[in-house]
Amino acid sequence: MPPYRLQTLLDMRTRAKEEAEQAFSDAIKALEREKAELQRLMDELERRKRERKEKVAAYLKEVMAKGAGINGMNMMGRFEERLKDEEAQVALEVERQREAVKVAERVVEQRRREMAEAAKELKAIEKHKETWQKQVKHERQQREELNQEEIGNALFLARQRK
Fold first, then answer.
1. What is the pLDDT of residues 34-91, one digit of tens each?
2. Residue 3 — left, alpha, or beta (φ > 0 → left; ψ -120 to 50 → alpha)?
3. If you write DSSP's letter for every residue of 6-55 in order, what string do you get?
4. CA distance 36 to 25
C-alpha cells in the first residue's frame, strides 16, 4: 500500500489532541488547587470569627472580674475592632480567591473546548485516511481482477489457436 499523503498532518493532529488533553488536565489540577485554597481561606475566616467571639467573651469576663472601668471597656472595644479588621482582611482574600476560582473555571472550559476541537479535527483526518485506504484497496482489487481477466483471455485465445 502506498504511504498516506497526509500522514504528517495526521501526526500533527494527534500531537495537538494529546497536548490539548494535557492542557485540560493541567487546568483541572489548577482549578482544584484554587478551590482548595478558597476552602482553606473560608475555614480560616470561620476560625477567626469563632476565636474573636471566644477572646472577647474571655476578655469581658476578665474585665468584669477586675471591675468594669470605662478604660477597660474602651480597650475591649479596640481589641474587638482589631480582630474584626483581621477578619475583614481574610474576607477580602476570600473574595479574591473566589475570583481566581472563576478564572480557573473559565480556563478549564476553554481547554475543554480546545480539546473537543482537536479531537474533532483528528477524527476528521482519521476518517479521511480510512476512506483513502478503502479506495486504494478497491483500486488494487480492480487492477488484480483486470490482470486475472487478461490472463484468462490470453489462455483462452492460446487454446483457440491450437
1. 999 999 999 999 998 898 888 888 877 877 777 666 777 777 788 888 888 989 999 9
2. beta
3. THHHHHHHHHHHHHHHHHHHHHHHHHHHHHHHHHHHHHHHHHHHHHHHHH
4. 17
Q: Where are the domains of the chain?
A: 7-123
Ramachandran area for residue 69 (φ above 0: left; ψ -120 to 50: alpha; else beta): beta
Q: Give the Å distances, CA to CA, from 13 to 3, 4, 18, 76, 150.
A: 18, 15, 9, 67, 44
For domain 7-123, is the CATH number 1.10.287.1700? yes
Q: What's the whole-model pTM score?
A: 0.72
Q: Provide the residue type at 136 as one letter.
A: V
Cell, residue 142: 480492480
Place of cell 475583614: 88
**Are the beta carbons of 121 and 13 closer than 8 angstroms?**
yes
Residues 23 and 115 sit within 8 Å (Cβ to Cβ) = yes
